[in-house]
């Protein structure tokens, strides 16, 4: 059924796994460094990582891939030309690892920094977050509306 393409498909699967695992390692490193910067008392590094997260999460992944692959190559060419060095070509695999690492690093950073604050906030509030929400927010969430907007089973 595959007509001899099983070897190519297997090689593609291996390359995909290499790309995924390598980019996750880079993303975890970026996320840990960012979460450490956020938890430190240095406000500047926290703001830098907040801006990084906002920018990376706001731009589509394909646009970032194109910008990093082509933009990084152009920037490297400009630097090597100004220094009088031979041009350096970026391997597409390395560009993919860097791109996916930056993209997923923003998500790792956000999740790691939010999870630490979320866990530390519960004891401050005096208990479990599950019971805090109904007591504090449900009375504010319920606003009676017009009877015509309610489903027929809810009308009294």
TrEMBL record:
<dbReference type="GO" id="GO:0006865">
    <property type="term" value="P:amino acid transport"/>
</dbReference>
<comment type="similarity">
    <text>Belongs to the binding-protein-dependent transport system permease family. HisMQ subfamily.</text>
</comment>
<dbReference type="GO" id="GO:0022857">
    <property type="term" value="F:transmembrane transporter activity"/>
</dbReference>
<keyword id="KW-1003">Cell membrane</keyword>
<dbReference type="InterPro" id="IPR035906">
    <property type="entry name" value="MetI-like_sf"/>
</dbReference>
<keyword id="KW-0997">Cell inner membrane</keyword>
<dbReference type="InterPro" id="IPR010065">
    <property type="entry name" value="AA_ABC_transptr_permease_3TM"/>
</dbReference>
<protein>
    <submittedName>
        <fullName>Histidine transporter permease</fullName>
    </submittedName>
</protein>
<keyword id="KW-0812">Transmembrane</keyword>
<feature type="transmembrane region" description="Helical">
    <location>
        <begin position="92"/>
        <end position="109"/>
    </location>
</feature>
<keyword id="KW-0472">Membrane</keyword>
<keyword id="KW-1133">Transmembrane helix</keyword>
<dbReference type="GO" id="GO:0043190">
    <property type="term" value="C:ATP-binding cassette (ABC) transporter complex"/>
</dbReference>
<keyword id="KW-0813">Transport</keyword>
<feature type="transmembrane region" description="Helical">
    <location>
        <begin position="58"/>
        <end position="80"/>
    </location>
</feature>
<dbReference type="InterPro" id="IPR051613">
    <property type="entry name" value="ABC_transp_permease_HisMQ"/>
</dbReference>
<keyword id="KW-0029">Amino-acid transport</keyword>
<dbReference type="InterPro" id="IPR000515">
    <property type="entry name" value="MetI-like"/>
</dbReference>
<feature type="transmembrane region" description="Helical">
    <location>
        <begin position="12"/>
        <end position="37"/>
    </location>
</feature>
């Amino acid at each position: 059924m595959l007509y001899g393409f099983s070897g190519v498909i297997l090689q593609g699967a291996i390359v995909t796994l290499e790309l995924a695992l390598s980019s996750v390692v880079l993303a975890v490193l970026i996320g840990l460094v960012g979460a450490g910067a956020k938890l430190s008392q240095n406000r500047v590094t926290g703001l830098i990582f907040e801006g990084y997260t906002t920018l990376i999460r706001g731009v589509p992944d394909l646009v970032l891939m194109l910008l990093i692959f082509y933009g990084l190559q152009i920037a490297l060419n400009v630097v090597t030309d100004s220094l009088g060095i031979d041009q350096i070509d970026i391997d597409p695999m390395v560009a993919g690892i860097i791109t996916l690492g930056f993209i997923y690093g923003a998500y790792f950073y956000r999740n790691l920094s939010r999870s630490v604050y979320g866990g530390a906030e519960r004891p401050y509030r005096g208990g479990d977050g599950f019971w805090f929400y109904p007591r504090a927010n449900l009375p504010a969430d319920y606003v009676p509306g017009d009877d015509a907007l309610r489903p027929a089973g809810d009308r009294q």
